[in-house]
């Protein structure tokens, strides 16, 4: 019987550097001859990509309620888990996700203020109760994270409903992630993302080697 694969997730405020660090982590793991898949949330499947556009860019979505937002994220996630993540893990492959259910806990629960009991129930149903093996939160001062997000290039005239939220929202997100790391210290690790890319990646490697001792030193 094939041993189950490993499931890693990266979390943090918009602008915290997830894309850069995921790319470095993928290259490092693949250099160790591991078969690793990268997925993103929302998105990652045909259904999920349509939902992603509605959540982030479509003008129709600008005024959606927090409850609608929660359920759309869950729908995209349910599709991703069943179509890509679970089959890959069953084959013994690794999966790295750019966001997962912890984003919903923090963004829709902590920051939007939806009842956490209901958020947790919907999360559990969407992910079929398959938690990540390790979650790395890139921790960065919310004002710096927001400034980075707003400086990122976009297609002319394109809005991003999630990146364009105000500083108060970013602060609630950062506080939510730090609280999550305190509640689940075995699974969730805070990574100081205030240094250079290289320094941040070194901290990520340290956590991965601790969690998975078979990785190269």
Key phrases:
12% strand; 8 helices; 217 residues; alpha/beta; Rossmann fold; 5-stranded parallel sheet; 53% helix
Can you walk through the features of this model?
This protein has 217 residues and is of the alpha/beta class. The protein has one domain: Rossmann fold. 53% of the residues lie in helices and 12% in strands. The protein is built from 8 helices and 5 strands; from the N terminus they run E-H-E-H-H-E-H-H-E-H-H-E-H. The chain has helices at residues 18-31, 46-56, 66-90, 101-111, 116-126, 142-151, 167-183, 197-211, and strands spanning 7-11, 36-40, 94-98, 134-139, 188-192. Strands 2-3-1-4-5 form a 5-stranded parallel β-sheet, sandwiched between helices. Helix 4 (101-111) runs antiparallel to helix 5 (116-126) and helix 6 packs across helix 7. The two termini are 28 Å apart. The model has no long low-confidence stretch (mean pLDDT 94).
């Amino acid at each position: 019987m094939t041993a189950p694969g490993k499931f890693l997730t990266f979390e943090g405020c918009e602008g915290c550097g997830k894309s850069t660090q995921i790319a470095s982590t993928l290259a490092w793991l693949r250099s160790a001859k591991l078969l690793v898949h990268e997925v993103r949330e929302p998105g990652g499947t045909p259904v999920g990509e349509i939902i992603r556009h509605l959540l982030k860019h479509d003008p129709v979505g600008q005024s959606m309620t927090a409850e609608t937002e929660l359920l759309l994220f869950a729908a995209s996630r349910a599709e991703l888990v069943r179509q890509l993540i679970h089959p890959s893990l069953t084959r013994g492959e690794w999966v790295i996700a750019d966001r997962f259910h912890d984003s919903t806990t923090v963004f829709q629960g902590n920051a939007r203020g939806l009842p956490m009991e209901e958020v947790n129930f919907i999360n559990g149903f969407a992910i079929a109760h398959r938690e990540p093996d390790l979650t790395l939160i890139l921790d960065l001062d919310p004002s710096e994270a927001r400034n980075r997000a707003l400086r990122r290039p976009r297609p002319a005239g394109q809005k991003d409903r999630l990146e364009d939220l105000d500083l108060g929202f970013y602060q609630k997100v950062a506080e939510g992630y730090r609280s999550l790391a305190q509640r689940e210290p075995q699974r969730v690790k805070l990574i100081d993302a205030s240094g250079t890319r290289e320094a941040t990646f070194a901290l990520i490697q340290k956590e991965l080697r601790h969690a998975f001792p078979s990785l190269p030193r």
